[in-house]
Give the backbone structure.
Amino acid sequence: MMNDFLINKFEADIACDYLNEHISRFNKFRTINRRGNDNTKELNNYWLEIIDFINHKYRNNKDKKEFIESLKKEIINQRLNSEDLIWIDKSNTRLCNWLYVLLQKRGGDYRFNSINIGEMYLGRKSYTNIERYNSVINILTHLYASKEDKIEFINRLKKIWSEEVVKYRKVKDLINKNNINQTVWAYKYIEKTFNKKSNKTTFNVDNDSDYYHIIICYFDSIENHYEKNDKFTKLKNAWSQKKYREDNNGKKSYSFNMSIDIANKLDILSADSNRSKNYIVEELIKNEYLKLKK
């Protein structure tokens, strides 16, 4: 008889209530409340006590087996199955990152109906996408709540994801995931300006694509809409300034007074040659200078 059947205190309480209802009084599961510890050893011992209790109440092996199976079914009925969790696609890096950071960030104070995320532990050493996916699945399946409440909680996460997170496209439109120079710059800008830790306890940068995913996750994880827009505007303006400085490297701005109609003539020359006004003026001056040097 395996002794690791129970996965959390919620299931232990189901077992206790079932025994109280169908056999006789049985003591509730007791353990030290330690965040970050799923009390596996205590749960295993409690399950052994349950089996021992049933063995003393039933003499017939067939009756024992049927009762234990009935008890297990009662507990399993409150567990999530693969269909309940199919929405969480392990190949969707953005989704896995957002869920992981949300549950980690809100773990100490987030409540939904009877669910308290703070009661569960989300591994802080989940550095790869598959590790973060497994951590998310683990915390959802181990929530101290009924299956109905867990599904309702997942549906709420779905709603936030589809109606708020995914619809915010500003960062994805600005940052080109294939432009490593831009992604590294944006990563360092966020690290220096907004978040000095830059999720270093959550993410490792093992390859170039990690920079992009961390940037997207950083903004996805900002729940205040005004804060998100404010930080995005600063990032966008900083990038525009950087591009302007790079494009104008070795150049200097000049100001001259000219006839009113010069602007219109310059527009025509620019449109006709499909070249910038700056280029046309520079070429005219260079050509005149070369004539002077001959």
DSSP finds twelve helices and two strands in the chain.
